[in-house]
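Design request, tokens follow.
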């Protein structure tokens, strides 16, 4: 991977030569000793760079949905979410585990890449037709004809999604960050501009459908341009498909179960409560998953290829997984649990009183964010360590717990469903981390020790902020500007308290977070300020 910093190419010599990416730096094979300093620098810098792109995307999304919440009622978003119910599981079957299989692939990458492209494209066509045929059934399930029409209209998204699998895999293998800093923000910006204009003109749910297609088309075009991928079907082979499918089927099964659980969540809310309740829940989840997405972004995009490169060195691999869990939990726990005392006033102040139920659901959903981050690292460790066969069982346990608790608490309405789902995800992801440690033969006691300091510090933070907000401040009773200012002050107080307690409980973790943040920030600023060189095929 050649990155031009200040006009002089820097060669990170753990790159691989792969289709369309004829890097000129030294090559290494799987099994070679990877330069620890270079890989660590790439992971830390890459995390900072992709996090910067993620933050930009989420800021654009945040602004977009603040505007959309003023333009349409919760029921509009509920109808759209119900009509999109087939896309989650469908996209998993389109991708069919090929992304992880390509990232983990040690050899014959050109053949693997072209085979994966043909397979995912064929899957995209087949599943698009299947989703189109099943659309009337979706309308019947929800007893809503418009939901069925939306489901039919959204079926083409599966084919478009198939077109990004191989370009995304290429970018991740090269530790290229263009996906996060260019492709994703572009898609969000296109969605925002299109959806705001369409809803303002009175298109309703069809404005969201139009904006989703516009966003996906722009991302497909940008991903192909950034990766430099070009199809060469003659290189594809059935033998290679069997090898890729052998690895990817476990990822496919596990992720498919996960999406079935999410679809069940959508169905229960939309069918047994109302489309409006589903819209409230979806808005809450968009806010609630932000801390989790921040960590999943790093885990899936940076840590998976890094884990794949060092998995043959057991001690180094174990240290990397433990450190990733320790640092990401320390960063995500306070950001997510801040929403327990502040979620409801935040939602009311940002998008209005009619979204109060979403704020109450947000308080419950925030409990699952940090455990889900830990679960994502566990999944990346299993994929990188060549043990994707362990994933289906973990996802099955998580799905059973989340669906079961969600149904058990359904009589308590929207908040009950949100709390049940959050508790199920928390228990399921905790189980996933334990089983991952056992499967990869890591030291369970060492890994268990990383969790208690951030939760202890965050528990003290909640113990201060919850009564302060509920009994004294009442931020939502003030005007939007004054209320948001009060929430910012409460947030600063909470994070200061958390940081002080974490420094006392886990001083090494606190120092590493500070040092890593400085390194990542410096690297990100350097990359943004430098010209990124590309190979003749477009690698970065």
């Amino acid at each position: 991977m050649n990155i031009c910093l200040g006009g002089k190419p820097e060669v990170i010599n753990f790159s691989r030569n792969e289709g369309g990416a004829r890097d000129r730096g030294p090559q290494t094979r799987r099994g070679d000793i990877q330069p620890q300093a270079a890989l660590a620098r790439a992971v830390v810098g890459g995390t900072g760079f992709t996090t910067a792109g993620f933050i930009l995307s989420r800021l654009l999304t945040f602004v977009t949905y603040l505007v959309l919440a003023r333009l349409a009622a919760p029921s509009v978003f509920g109808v759209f979410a119900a009509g999109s119910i087939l896309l989650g599981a469908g996209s998993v079957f389109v991708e069919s585990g090929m992304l992880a299989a390509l990232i983990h692939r040690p050899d014959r990458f050109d053949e693997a890449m072209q085979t994966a492209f043909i397979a995912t494209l064929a899957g995209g066509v087949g599943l698009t037709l299947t989703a189109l045929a099943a659309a009337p059934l979706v309308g019947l399930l929800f007893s809503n004809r418009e939901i069925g029409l939306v489901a039919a209209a959204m079926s083409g998204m599966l084919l478009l999604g198939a077109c990004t699998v191989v370009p995304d895999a290429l970018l991740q293998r090269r530790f290229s960050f263009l996906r996060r800093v260019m492709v994703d923000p572009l898609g969000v910006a296109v969605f925002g501009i299109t959806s705001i204009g369409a809803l303002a003109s009175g298109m309703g749910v069809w404005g969201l459908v139009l904006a989703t297609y516009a966003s996906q088309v722009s991302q497909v075009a940008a991903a192909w341009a950034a990766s430099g991928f070009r199809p060469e079907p003659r290189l594809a082979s059935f033998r290679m498909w069997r090898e890729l499918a052998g690895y990817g089927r476990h990822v496919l099964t596990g992720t498919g179960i996960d999406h079935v659980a999410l679809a069940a969540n959508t169905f229960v809310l939309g069918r047994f409560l109302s489309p409006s309740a589903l819209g409230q829940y979806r808005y809450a989840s968009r806010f609630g998953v932000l801390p989790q997405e921040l960590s999943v972004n790093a885990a899936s995009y940076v840590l998976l290829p890094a884990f794949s490169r060092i998995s043959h060195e057991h001690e180094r691999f174990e240290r990397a997984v433990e450190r990733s869990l320790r640092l990401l939990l320390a960063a995500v726990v306070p950001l997510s649990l801040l929403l327990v005392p502040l979620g409801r006033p935040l939602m009311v102040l940002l998008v209005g009183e009619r979204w109060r139920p979403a704020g109450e659901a947000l308080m419950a959903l925030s409990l699952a964010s940090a455990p889900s981050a830990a679960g994502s690292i566990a999944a990346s460790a299993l994929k990188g360590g060549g043990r994707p066969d362990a994933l289906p069982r973990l996802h099955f346990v998580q799905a059973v717990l989340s669906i079961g608790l969600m149904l058990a608490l359904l009589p308590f309405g929207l908040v009950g469903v949100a709390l049940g789902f959050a508790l199920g995800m928390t228990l399921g992801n905790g189980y996933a981390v334990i089983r991952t440690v056992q499967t990869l033969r890591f030291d369970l006691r060492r890994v268990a020790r990383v969790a208690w300091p951030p939760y202890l510090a965050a528990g003290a933070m909640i113990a201060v902020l919850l009564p302060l907000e509920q009994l004294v401040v009442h931020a939502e009773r003030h005007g939007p500007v004054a209320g948001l200012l009060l929430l910012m002050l409460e947030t600063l107080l909470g994070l200061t308290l958390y940081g002080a307690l974490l420094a006392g409980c886990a001083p090494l973790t606190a120092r590493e977070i500070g040092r890593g943040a400085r390194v990542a920030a410096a690297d990100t600023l350097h990359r943004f300020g430098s010209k990124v060189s590309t190979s003749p095929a477009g690698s970065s």
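Comment from the thread starter after seeing the answer: thanks! The longest strand covers residues 2-5.
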